[in-house]
Design brief:
The protein has about 45 residues and is an all-alpha fold. About 90% of the residues lie in helices and about 0% in strands. The protein contains one helix and no strands. The longest helix is centred in the middle third of the chain and has 42 residues.
Length: about 45
């Protein structure tokens, strides 16, 4: 049983890794867009 759960754990981590990287990248891009919008709003005097 331990071998099966260990294999499932490794597979889960292997599948979650790229998804976590994509999610972090998506959040970073969203933050950049919010920062750019905020910069434009401040520059426009809003």
């Amino acid at each position: 049983m331990a071998v099966l759960s260990d294999e499932a754990g490794r597979r889960g981590v292997g599948e979650a890794g790229p998804a976590a990287v994509r999610a972090a990248f998506s959040v970073a891009r969203g933050g950049e867009q919010v920062g750019a919008l905020y910069g434009e709003a401040v520059g426009a005097g809003l």
